[in-house]
Design a protein that fits this description.
This protein is of the alpha+beta class. It is about 50% helix and about 15% strand. The strands form 6 sheets. It has a 5-stranded antiparallel sheet with strand order 6-7-8-9-10. A 3-stranded antiparallel sheet has the order 5-2-11.
Length: about 575
């Protein structure tokens, strides 16, 4: 099969046709979220519960970068493996804290998950290359070589020397309309993925060479279409459309433009990732096993949202009608002054008081429009809107405890039960976001192990300033040879949604309490039966490795254990009788 530009253009067109309804629905949903409506002189009021739900759900599933946890796959005594895990975790944590691309990509991806229904991120390897000065070759050195040998030492045609000064693995957010893949039933059946980028002529020539000058500049941002701006300015904003396609079947990356019949570039697998694709499985809203076309959350309760908007519009109309209106006797002009000019403690004189009183006074001279029916209708509408809101909350899984609507009479146990029940509905969504965040970090770890220079890994990790510096060379070799075979990369899901400052203190206190209690009893047992010291030390290390907080002290514990065991193996002088 010829994987040429025409083939990829047909594949992209097939994806576009299959996902046309998803794209159109996603655009409408975003407009609904932004409350974009036609500009008219009069517009009914709306209750944008969709915006409210998204703003409530997002911090419940993601609000900050996670805490990375790299650990050995097997919790045995292995100083080299433990040091390698610490180095890799420190390098990943440095990139997450030093650069904001990961957090920005995750935040925008979650937005796409909650709005159109699919969020995508893309990872790259970005080395910083710098040229170094060519060493000066003196006459004394030149004298030791013949003519052929010295030709490679210096000269005008010698290639400049380069070195990798810095390395990064940026995470790019991919707009949900700029992503494409093989239309399939499940993600495992997908054999190619692609993302769309827009490039100016200068950017394209710098990246692809002169072949890019044949690519027409057809893309123009929507806000500049159908405008009265200067055509020269508009023409300067146009860019070319380029698709970056990763094909797992051929293990190659293709760069093509839908407006040309030539492949702009083609390269073999540049990252050599285990899964090949530079992006993890996207975050989906609702999908089934027969299609990867997601169904947005809003579509599941859009009828109830429309009903709330209709009720809110009626409330607006009735509220405008809820005002004091009435009629009065025309032969008593004082009544008009009383209703229009009257304020607190103002008296309006009546010309013929006996005749006015004989007619029944103010009660019979003025009649107001009845408002009881309007007030009753408003109360019914408000009640209907609240019922519709509760139905939407049940559909989306947002409970009253998450929105802070709690009764003062409820006990702490009752509120905790309600909170746990509400979290059950969000667990799948939270786990999906955590899975996506974890997959990105695993891709980042693969690139760090396979592409980064050893000296950069050592510098960024700062392992040289720790007691484990002696194991660093072997640890780097382990990372280079078997990147992820001996390690597990995980994240703490709770750290995605909240930052508990007491959690770290509590975990340290728990570790110290458990360790000190065990040591106290172990010393007593060892004094009675010295032969069980090896068993006691193994039990101690078994417990230390179970605490994440204890990882930093695991090396010290192991050194102490080895010293104690070595001392026990030394011949002991007999105690005096």
């Amino acid at each position: 099969m010829a994987y040429d530009a025409i083939y990829w253009r047909n594949e992209l067109h097939r994806y576009k046709e299959d996902y046309r309804r998803f794209t159109e629905a996603g655009r409408k949903i975003i407009k609904r979220y932004r409350d974009e409506r036609k500009d008219t002189a009069y517009s009914d009021a709306r209750f944008n519960i969709f915006w409210s739900n998204v703003k409530t759900l997002k911090p419940a599933i993601y609000s900050r970068p996670p805490k990375v946890e790299v650990s050995r796959r097997f919790k045995d005594q292995n100083d080299v493996g433990r040091t390698a895990a610490i180095i890799l975790e420190r390098v990943i944590d440095y990139e997450l804290s030093q650069y904001s691309d990961y957090h920005n990509a995750m935040s925008q991806t979650v937005d796409d998950r909650l709005l159109p229904g699919r969020g995508v991120a893309w990872i790259r390897y970005e080395p910083k290359i710098e040229q170094i000065e060519e060493p000066q070759v003196t006459d004394d050195v030149m004298a030791g070589y013949n003519e052929n040998e010295t030709s490679g030492l210096a000269g005008e045609n010698a290639e400049p020397l380069e070195r990798v000064a810095d390395e990064r693995t940026p995470v790019d957010y991919v707009f949900w309309e700029d992503f494409a893949h093989l239309p399939a039933r499940t993600w495992e059946e997908v054999t190619w993925v692609a993302r769309r980028v827009y490039m100016s002529e200068e950017e394209g020539v710098e990246r692809f060479g002169e072949i890019f000058r044949t690519v027409p500049l057809t893309h123009l941002p929507e806000r500049y279409k159908d405008t009265d701006q200067d055509q020269n300015v508009v023409e300067g904003l146009k860019k070319a459309v380029v698709w970056e396609i990763w094909c797992k079947t051929t293990k190659h990356v293709y760069w093509v433009s839908p407006d040309t019949d030539e492949i702009l570039d083609k390269k073999p697998d540049p990252l050599e990732l285990e899964t090949f694709f530079p992006c993890p499985k996207p975050i989906y809203s609702t999908i089934t096993t027969d299609s990867l076309i997601p169904v947005a959350d809003f579509k599941l309760y859009q009828d109830q949202a429309d009903e709330i908007d209709n009720i809110t519009g009626r409330i607006q109309h009735l509220t405008r009608a809820l005002k004091v209106m009435g009629i009065y006797a025309a032969d008593e002009p004082a009544l008009a002054r009383l209703m229009k000019e009257g304020n607190d403690a103002v008296m309006v004189p009546v010309t013929n008081w006996p005749a006015f009183a004989e007619k029944g006074g103010l009660q019979n001279a003025v009649q107001f429009m009845p408002l009881g029916e309007v007030v009753q209708a408003l109360q019914t509408l408000y009640s209907a809107r609240e019922s519709c809101k509760q139905l939407i909350y049940e559909t989306t899984g947002i409970s009253d405890i998450l929105r802070g609507a709690s009764s003062a009479q409820e006990t702490a146990t009752a509120q905790q039960i309600k909170s746990q029940f509400a979290s059950i509905r969000l667990n799948d969504m939270k786990d999906d976001v955590a899975r996506f965040a974890r997959d990105i970090l695993r891709l980042k770890a693969e690139i760090i192990c396979s592409k980064y220079q050893p000296e950069i890994i050592l510098t960024v990790s700062g392992i040289a300033n720790t007691p484990d510096a002696q194991f660093a060379p072997e640890a780097i070799a382990l990372l280079k040879n078997e990147p992820l075979r001996n390690f597990q990369i995980d994240i703490q899901t709770d750290t995605l949604v909240e930052l508990d400052e007491q959690a770290e203190k509590q975990s340290r206190i728990e570790f110290l309490t458990a360790t000190s209690s065990f040591l106290e009893k172990a010393v007593q047992a060892s004094n009675v039966a010295p032969d069980i010291v090896p068993l006691v030390m193994q039990m101690l290390m078994f417990g230390v490795r179970g605490f994440k907080t204890g990882r930093d002290m695991e090396g010290v514990f192991e050194q102490t254990t080895q010293q104690i065991m070595a001392k026990l193996q030394q011949p002991q002088e007999p105690k005096p009788d």
